[in-house]
Structure prediction request, 104 residues.
Amino acid sequence: MNMQMLYLIVPLAPLVGAIIAGLFGKWVGRTGAHLATIAGVAVSLIASALVFQDVLAGHTFNGTVYTWMVLGDLRFEVGFLIDSLTAMMMLVVTFVSLMVHIYT
Prediction:
């Protein structure tokens, strides 16, 4: 798995967990919905830790994920800038988010 995939997993894993809990919560019950959302945030925390480890090794990333719109010479792009501050904040936010999901 390449690092760009990990960058996408960090925000998308909790989203997938929320979608699963929202769409299938009636069938899996309250406990199943909790497990789905906690698993999504836990996967995001693991991906954040791997990104942090990669940044500590000296790798940074500044790239475009996709181009949203082009108007003449003006391009609207969606991308990521991953440096040491970003990686540390990702790790802190995903850790706190996991603790909130577990203990509430």
